[in-house]
């Protein structure tokens, strides 16, 4: 428990920033009309390719004996890839709705 408090005290500015980002994100997303929510989120998911690049970059610099970091990095690459692919699939389905039917 002491280690957790030490981490919180040493990183309180980062924790404040994360908490503020959560509140701002909730307010911004809450203000988006329902009709626009799906296309905006699918586009945002496609942008998350940065997560994949970041996870690969971090995994390249991790010691091979650190199994936890390698597992978390692999999980980040996998979930980031799912997010990007899902974003493109949803965007494609949304665009199909606006095409003229034959």
Characterization of this structure:
With 102 residues, the chain is an all-alpha fold. The protein has two domains: 1-31; 39-102. The chain is built from five helices and no strands. The mean pLDDT is 83.
How is this structure best summarized?
By secondary structure, the protein is mostly helical. The chain has helices at 2-10, 12-30, 34-47, 49-60, 67-97. The protein folds into 2 domains: 1-31; 39-102.
Helices and strands, in N-to-C order?
Answer: HHHHH
Shape: flat
Strand tally, please?
A: 0
* Helix amount: over 70%
Over all CA atoms, what is the radius of gyration? 19 Å
* Main structural class: mainly alpha
Task: Please give the domain count.
Answer: 2
Main beta sheet: none
Cα-to-Cα separation, first versus last residue? 65 Å
The low-pLDDT segments are none
Tally the helices: 5
- Strand portion: under 5%
